[in-house]
Amino acid sequence: MKKILLAFQFLTIIPLRVRSDISEKELSRSASFFPLVGAFQGLLAVVSAALLLKVFSAEIVSALIVLILIISNGGFHLDGLADTFDALSVKSSGDKAVDREKRLSAMKDSSTGAIGVIAIVSVIMLKFLFINNLFSISSIITASSLLFLMPVFSKWVMIPAMYYGVSARQDGLGKIFLDNIRANAVIFSSLLTIIFCLLITELHLHKLYGTKPIALFFILVFALYIFSFLSVKFCEKKFGGLTGDTLGAISEISEILFLMVVTVWLQHFI
Predict the structure, then answer these.
(1) Which of 38, 122, 134, 259 has the most CB atoms around it within 10 Å of its CB?
(2) Would you say residue 203 lies in a domain?
(3) Which residues lie below 8 Å from residue 55, measured CB to CB, with a gap of 6+?
(4) Residue 242: strand, helix, or coil
């Protein structure tokens, strides 16, 4: 239970606090339950959609869902996205070691640059467009079912990245996870994600699409796992490893990829 509370405390604004002392290993082990936090955020999005669609148009509801998801974790990952893209915008000097230090320094800067703002605006805009499109090309229940899974996958995708990655810094919250994540966390979190996929399939998608959703989820797990691995390699090249900010960026970008895949599936394979 302590690990679950730590996962919610770390990833959401819910005022849950573990009163006892927390070791670095305990905090890192809470990552196994990140998909559970994603399920909570997914449920929040689904309930919000069900209530808001009775009052507002799908366009407005899509925008509000994006806003609700941002608020639910305090813009934690968006902040990491902005910092990561600000760091990537640092011009190369030709010296890899110097460039890495400059990028890490830019990432740590509390101010947000133009590229960081563009990254945030682009991600929010794309999420809005894709979610609105989900409501227009499928039933409300189907769109809500897939919307529920979006944060589940985006929270899960960080865990393989933590497992394969190394810390770019000698301090920071990200280092705690990167130094302590083991294969069992990847396996357990993956099983949680698969269980949520099967649950959604059994509750609704199987009735409409038969076994096709299973293929979709297999593709999503494979594609996002590869994305996670490639992101680690990219960050190692640019920053010398991962940071908490880059993990947040990976999570945000994975939601766009998730929405892209399910949109293509609904439009061309159903």
Answers:
(1) 38
(2) yes
(3) none
(4) strand
